Amino acid sequence: MKIAIIASEFGEGNKAAKALKNSYRAVNTREADVIVALGGDGFMLQTLHTYMGYGKPIYGMNKGTVGFLMNEFSPDNLLERIEKADSFGLHPLKMRATRCDGETVEHLAINEVSLLRETRQAANISIAIDGKVRLAELVGDGLLVATPAGSSAYNLSAHGPIIPLGSDLLALTPLSAFRPRRWRGALLPHHVSVELTVNQAQKRPVSAVADMHEVRDVRKVVVEEDKSKTLELLFDADHTLADRIFNEQFT
User: Fold this and answer.
1) Which of the following is catalytic: 33, 41, 86, 226?
2) How far apart are CA 28 and CA 26, in angstroms?
Protein backbone atom coordinates (compact mmCIF):
# COMPACT_ATOMS: atom_id res chain seq x y z
CA MET A 1 0.00 0.00 0.00
CA LYS A 2 1.31 3.43 -0.98
CA ILE A 3 0.36 6.26 1.35
CA ALA A 4 0.72 10.03 1.11
CA ILE A 5 1.03 11.98 4.36
CA ILE A 6 -0.22 15.57 4.49
CA ALA A 7 -0.71 17.90 7.44
CA SER A 8 -2.28 21.15 8.51
CA GLU A 9 0.15 24.05 8.67
CA PHE A 10 -1.29 24.92 12.07
CA GLY A 11 -0.92 23.11 15.38
CA GLU A 12 1.03 19.88 15.77
CA GLY A 13 0.18 18.35 12.41
CA ASN A 14 3.46 19.21 10.65
CA LYS A 15 5.60 17.80 13.44
CA ALA A 16 3.58 14.58 13.50
CA ALA A 17 3.78 14.26 9.72
CA LYS A 18 7.57 14.49 9.76
CA ALA A 19 7.73 11.75 12.37
CA LEU A 20 5.42 9.50 10.36
CA LYS A 21 7.45 10.02 7.19
CA ASN A 22 10.49 8.78 9.07
CA SER A 23 8.65 5.59 9.97
CA TYR A 24 6.70 4.93 6.76
CA ARG A 25 7.66 5.27 3.14
CA ALA A 26 5.42 8.06 1.85
CA VAL A 27 4.76 9.05 -1.76
CA ASN A 28 3.09 12.07 -3.33
CA THR A 29 -0.70 12.32 -3.41
CA ARG A 30 -1.02 11.34 -7.08
CA GLU A 31 0.94 8.10 -6.61
CA ALA A 32 -0.72 7.15 -3.32
CA ASP A 33 -3.40 4.53 -2.77
CA VAL A 34 -4.52 6.31 0.41
CA ILE A 35 -4.06 9.89 1.63
CA VAL A 36 -3.35 10.23 5.36
CA ALA A 37 -4.39 13.66 6.66
CA LEU A 38 -3.19 15.04 10.02
CA GLY A 39 -5.12 17.91 11.56
CA GLY A 40 -8.63 18.74 12.73
CA ASP A 41 -12.06 18.66 11.12
CA GLY A 42 -11.40 21.91 9.26
CA PHE A 43 -8.31 20.43 7.67
CA MET A 44 -10.23 17.27 6.76
CA LEU A 45 -12.84 19.36 4.93
CA GLN A 46 -10.06 21.25 3.17
CA THR A 47 -8.40 17.95 2.19
CA LEU A 48 -11.63 16.48 0.86
CA HIS A 49 -12.20 19.55 -1.31
CA THR A 50 -8.60 19.69 -2.54
CA TYR A 51 -8.37 16.02 -3.53
CA MET A 52 -11.98 15.49 -4.57
CA GLY A 53 -11.03 14.66 -8.13
CA TYR A 54 -8.29 12.19 -7.22
CA GLY A 55 -10.62 9.29 -6.40
CA LYS A 56 -8.52 8.23 -3.41
CA PRO A 57 -9.74 7.30 0.10
CA ILE A 58 -8.68 9.60 2.91
CA TYR A 59 -7.71 8.42 6.39
CA GLY A 60 -7.56 11.24 8.92
CA MET A 61 -5.81 11.32 12.29
CA ASN A 62 -6.63 13.99 14.82
CA LYS A 63 -4.05 16.65 15.46
CA GLY A 64 -6.62 19.42 15.88
CA THR A 65 -9.35 20.17 18.39
CA VAL A 66 -12.65 18.29 17.99
CA GLY A 67 -11.59 15.78 15.33
CA PHE A 68 -15.06 14.32 14.75
CA LEU A 69 -14.11 13.31 11.20
CA MET A 70 -10.69 12.05 12.28
CA ASN A 71 -9.32 8.87 13.81
CA GLU A 72 -7.29 8.88 17.00
CA PHE A 73 -3.67 9.77 16.34
CA SER A 74 -1.15 6.98 16.80
CA PRO A 75 2.03 6.34 14.82
CA ASP A 76 1.84 2.60 15.50
CA ASN A 77 0.52 0.00 13.04
CA LEU A 78 -0.73 2.65 10.63
CA LEU A 79 -0.83 0.42 7.56
CA GLU A 80 -2.69 -2.30 9.45
CA ARG A 81 -5.24 0.22 10.73
CA ILE A 82 -5.85 1.52 7.21
CA GLU A 83 -6.25 -2.01 5.80
CA LYS A 84 -8.86 -2.87 8.45
CA ALA A 85 -10.64 0.52 8.30
CA ASP A 86 -14.34 0.94 7.60
CA SER A 87 -15.11 2.85 4.40
CA PHE A 88 -17.75 5.57 4.21
CA GLY A 89 -18.87 7.08 0.88
CA LEU A 90 -20.42 10.54 0.75
CA HIS A 91 -22.00 12.55 -2.07
CA PRO A 92 -21.38 16.28 -1.56
CA LEU A 93 -24.00 18.97 -2.00
CA LYS A 94 -23.77 21.24 -5.03
CA MET A 95 -24.62 24.89 -4.36
CA ARG A 96 -25.56 27.04 -7.33
CA ALA A 97 -25.79 30.65 -6.11
CA THR A 98 -27.02 33.54 -8.23
CA ARG A 99 -25.87 36.95 -7.07
CA CYS A 100 -27.90 40.16 -7.29
CA ASP A 101 -25.72 41.27 -10.23
CA GLY A 102 -26.72 38.12 -12.17
CA GLU A 103 -23.45 36.20 -11.74
CA THR A 104 -23.88 32.48 -10.96
CA VAL A 105 -21.31 30.70 -8.81
CA GLU A 106 -21.09 26.97 -8.00
CA HIS A 107 -19.38 25.32 -5.03
CA LEU A 108 -19.54 21.90 -3.36
CA ALA A 109 -20.26 21.29 0.31
CA ILE A 110 -19.49 18.22 2.38
CA ASN A 111 -21.04 19.43 5.64
CA GLU A 112 -23.65 22.04 4.78
CA VAL A 113 -24.81 24.95 2.65
CA SER A 114 -25.89 27.89 4.77
CA LEU A 115 -27.59 31.21 4.01
CA LEU A 116 -26.72 34.00 6.44
CA ARG A 117 -27.87 37.60 6.82
CA GLU A 118 -25.13 40.13 6.12
CA THR A 119 -26.40 43.13 8.10
CA ARG A 120 -28.61 44.04 11.05
CA GLN A 121 -31.63 43.36 8.84
CA ALA A 122 -33.09 39.88 9.26
CA ALA A 123 -33.00 37.64 6.20
CA ASN A 124 -36.29 36.92 4.43
CA ILE A 125 -36.12 33.69 2.44
CA SER A 126 -38.64 31.69 0.41
CA ILE A 127 -38.20 27.90 0.43
CA ALA A 128 -39.24 25.70 -2.51
CA ILE A 129 -38.75 21.94 -2.74
CA ASP A 130 -38.71 20.42 -6.24
CA GLY A 131 -40.30 23.59 -7.60
CA LYS A 132 -43.13 23.81 -5.05
CA VAL A 133 -43.05 26.64 -2.51
CA ARG A 134 -43.29 25.15 0.96
CA LEU A 135 -42.59 28.29 2.98
CA ALA A 136 -43.08 31.72 1.40
CA GLU A 137 -41.25 33.62 4.13
CA LEU A 138 -38.67 32.53 6.65
CA VAL A 139 -37.52 35.58 8.61
CA GLY A 140 -34.45 35.26 10.82
CA ASP A 141 -30.67 34.91 10.66
CA GLY A 142 -30.90 32.40 7.81
CA LEU A 143 -31.01 28.63 7.34
CA LEU A 144 -28.85 25.69 6.31
CA VAL A 145 -29.05 22.42 4.40
CA ALA A 146 -26.89 19.72 6.02
CA THR A 147 -25.70 16.28 4.96
CA PRO A 148 -25.66 13.37 7.44
CA ALA A 149 -21.90 13.86 7.86
CA GLY A 150 -22.44 17.55 8.62
CA SER A 151 -25.58 17.10 10.72
CA SER A 152 -23.56 16.85 13.96
CA ALA A 153 -21.61 20.06 13.21
CA TYR A 154 -23.17 23.51 12.56
CA ASN A 155 -26.59 21.91 12.12
CA LEU A 156 -26.53 20.42 15.63
CA SER A 157 -25.41 23.75 17.12
CA ALA A 158 -28.46 25.31 15.46
CA HIS A 159 -30.67 22.67 17.18
CA GLY A 160 -31.13 20.68 13.99
CA PRO A 161 -31.50 16.87 14.02
CA ILE A 162 -28.60 14.45 13.88
CA ILE A 163 -29.06 12.27 10.80
CA PRO A 164 -27.84 8.64 10.90
CA LEU A 165 -25.70 7.55 7.97
CA GLY A 166 -27.55 5.59 5.33
CA SER A 167 -30.87 7.32 6.02
CA ASP A 168 -30.77 9.19 2.66
CA LEU A 169 -31.95 12.41 4.27
CA LEU A 170 -30.91 16.05 4.41
CA ALA A 171 -31.61 18.45 7.26
CA LEU A 172 -33.20 21.84 6.51
CA THR A 173 -32.64 23.90 9.66
CA PRO A 174 -33.56 27.54 10.40
CA LEU A 175 -31.12 29.87 12.15
CA SER A 176 -32.78 31.95 14.89
CA ALA A 177 -36.14 31.97 13.13
CA PHE A 178 -38.33 34.99 13.98
CA ARG A 179 -41.20 34.07 11.65
CA PRO A 180 -42.61 31.48 11.70
CA ARG A 181 -41.32 31.55 15.25
CA ARG A 182 -41.97 27.91 16.10
CA TRP A 183 -40.79 26.37 12.80
CA ARG A 184 -37.94 23.98 13.58
CA GLY A 185 -37.06 22.89 10.06
CA ALA A 186 -37.62 19.73 8.06
CA LEU A 187 -36.06 16.43 7.04
CA LEU A 188 -35.86 16.07 3.25
CA PRO A 189 -35.22 13.13 0.93
CA HIS A 190 -31.64 13.35 -0.32
CA HIS A 191 -32.67 13.50 -4.00
CA VAL A 192 -34.73 16.72 -3.84
CA SER A 193 -33.81 20.12 -5.24
CA VAL A 194 -33.95 22.88 -2.61
CA GLU A 195 -34.50 26.36 -4.08
CA LEU A 196 -33.97 29.29 -1.73
CA THR A 197 -35.03 32.73 -2.92
CA VAL A 198 -34.02 35.84 -0.99
CA ASN A 199 -36.95 38.23 -0.68
CA GLN A 200 -35.97 41.92 -0.69
CA ALA A 201 -32.39 40.95 -1.52
CA GLN A 202 -31.18 44.55 -1.85
CA LYS A 203 -32.67 45.66 1.46
CA ARG A 204 -31.89 42.42 3.32
CA PRO A 205 -28.58 41.15 1.87
CA VAL A 206 -27.73 37.48 2.34
CA SER A 207 -24.56 35.47 1.77
CA ALA A 208 -24.40 31.78 0.84
CA VAL A 209 -21.67 29.53 2.23
CA ALA A 210 -20.75 26.02 1.03
CA ASP A 211 -18.40 24.76 3.75
CA MET A 212 -15.58 27.33 3.49
CA HIS A 213 -16.65 28.99 0.22
CA GLU A 214 -18.74 32.17 0.61
CA VAL A 215 -20.75 34.02 -2.05
CA ARG A 216 -21.98 37.49 -1.05
CA ASP A 217 -25.20 39.26 -1.98
CA VAL A 218 -27.18 36.33 -3.38
CA ARG A 219 -30.76 36.44 -4.61
CA LYS A 220 -31.28 32.72 -5.30
CA VAL A 221 -29.55 29.52 -4.22
CA VAL A 222 -30.25 26.00 -5.46
CA VAL A 223 -28.93 23.07 -3.43
CA GLU A 224 -28.82 19.50 -4.75
CA GLU A 225 -26.88 16.35 -4.02
CA ASP A 226 -24.08 15.84 -6.56
CA LYS A 227 -24.30 12.13 -7.36
CA SER A 228 -21.49 12.39 -9.90
CA LYS A 229 -18.93 12.70 -7.09
CA THR A 230 -18.28 10.26 -4.26
CA LEU A 231 -15.85 10.98 -1.44
CA GLU A 232 -14.41 8.05 0.52
CA LEU A 233 -13.38 8.41 4.16
CA LEU A 234 -11.74 5.64 6.20
CA PHE A 235 -12.43 5.10 9.90
CA ASP A 236 -11.02 2.65 12.43
CA ALA A 237 -13.27 -0.40 12.56
CA ASP A 238 -13.83 -0.04 16.32
CA HIS A 239 -14.96 3.59 16.05
CA THR A 240 -16.69 4.20 12.71
CA LEU A 241 -18.35 7.45 11.64
CA ALA A 242 -21.75 5.75 11.91
CA ASP A 243 -20.97 4.91 15.56
CA ARG A 244 -19.91 8.49 16.29
CA ILE A 245 -23.04 10.00 14.78
CA PHE A 246 -25.21 7.50 16.63
CA ASN A 247 -23.41 8.17 19.92
CA GLU A 248 -23.90 11.93 19.51
CA GLN A 249 -27.63 11.37 19.96
CA PHE A 250 -27.05 10.09 23.50
CA THR A 251 -24.51 12.60 24.81
Assistant:
1) 41
2) 7
